Amino acid sequence: FDLKNDDFTNLQELGQGNGGSVMKVQHVPTGTIMAKKIVLIDAKPAERKKILLELQIMHDCDSPYIISSYGAYLAEPNICICMEFMDKGSFDGIYKRIGAIDIKVVGKVAVAVLEGLRYLYDVHRIIHRDIKPSNILCNSAGDIKLCDFGVSGELINSIANTFVGTSIYMSPERIQGATYSVKSDIWSLGITLLELSVGQFPFSDSFSDSDDSDLEREPNTPSNHRDSLQVPMSATSKRRARRRSKGVSLHGGGMTMSIIELMHQIVNEPSPRLPSGKFGQDPEDFVNACLQKDPDARSTPAQLFEMAWILYSRQNGVDMRAWADTF
Ligand code: ADP
Ligand code: MG
């Protein structure tokens, strides 16, 4: 494909993230429907060239667990990345539409993410760096694929947003400044699996009934979850935050306090867990293995592949195509 802006018709906005927005588009000369990610960058010509070169790795990916890429091009001051369109969207959108995801389907997600991570690392020596429900996509064939992996360090450097690289799915060691390893992705996978099976981000007021009973509770409704980071804050900081804004946003606006408090909690409090007894021992063991706070104690992808829940989930009888047809 020789991609250029004039050849696309915009069909629908699919969503916005930290670094840009994603559009469903049609590539008119070929009739192909694609997802086009538009990222506003602040980069010199030499850096732009390097970004495009690095993005080429995406194009070289060939795995059923990785979104395929049609290519990337510059459209000043943006960079556009054209990828396979996944018609059922991302798993954050899915659980917000249909509620908590059946644990057997979550098992399929775990298998797909582990396979995707293994492919990226074994074949291309890259670490994903941004595992979260919105970067795990589904289509009506029932395929589960990863997108938005860290192929381009230069692109990450050039995105004009302070919060790039900051994520509420970040592992304790990353928050404390350690270098990235594949174990950090495993932490993010654990948080993601908890969120999908419970239907709620784990570090939120109503997730567990443990020791936060002194806090005021606010419903963590599906619609406001995406952009408002609701974390158990002290009553004072909550009031302060509410005075400043109706939500607590990751995207700036003086709400950094809550992010710092969340990070503090991730580092200092015991890891969240699946509610005990509800989903069975195997998923609980798996999530606990992902959410070991000490990266040395956390399982490697190879160890996780051998765990009972993964062995079972590979052949658990769920028809993913039929499942994807229910919404
Ligand atoms: P984030 O991942 O932080 O939500 P992005 O800008 O990466 O932000 O993506 C915005 C939204 O676009 C995602 O939440 C996802 O639902 C949607 N999206 C991204 N890529 C695709 C794709 N290839 N096919 C369908 N939807 C997509
Ligand atoms: Mg994304």
Automatic annotation (TrEMBL):
<dbReference type="GO" id="GO:0004674">
    <property type="term" value="F:protein serine/threonine kinase activity"/>
</dbReference>
<feature type="compositionally biased region" description="Basic and acidic residues">
    <location>
        <begin position="216"/>
        <end position="228"/>
    </location>
</feature>
<keyword id="KW-0723">Serine/threonine-protein kinase</keyword>
<dbReference type="GO" id="GO:0004712">
    <property type="term" value="F:protein serine/threonine/tyrosine kinase activity"/>
</dbReference>
<feature type="binding site">
    <location>
        <position position="37"/>
    </location>
    <ligand>
        <name>ATP</name>
    </ligand>
</feature>
<keyword id="KW-0547">Nucleotide-binding</keyword>
<feature type="compositionally biased region" description="Basic residues">
    <location>
        <begin position="237"/>
        <end position="246"/>
    </location>
</feature>
<keyword id="KW-0808">Transferase</keyword>
<keyword id="KW-0418">Kinase</keyword>
<keyword id="KW-0067">ATP-binding</keyword>
<comment type="similarity">
    <text>Belongs to the protein kinase superfamily. STE Ser/Thr protein kinase family. MAP kinase kinase subfamily.</text>
</comment>
<protein>
    <submittedName>
        <fullName>Pkinase-domain-containing protein</fullName>
    </submittedName>
</protein>
<dbReference type="GO" id="GO:0000165">
    <property type="term" value="P:MAPK cascade"/>
</dbReference>
<dbReference type="GO" id="GO:0005524">
    <property type="term" value="F:ATP binding"/>
</dbReference>
<feature type="domain" description="Protein kinase">
    <location>
        <begin position="8"/>
        <end position="310"/>
    </location>
</feature>
<feature type="region of interest" description="Disordered">
    <location>
        <begin position="209"/>
        <end position="249"/>
    </location>
</feature>
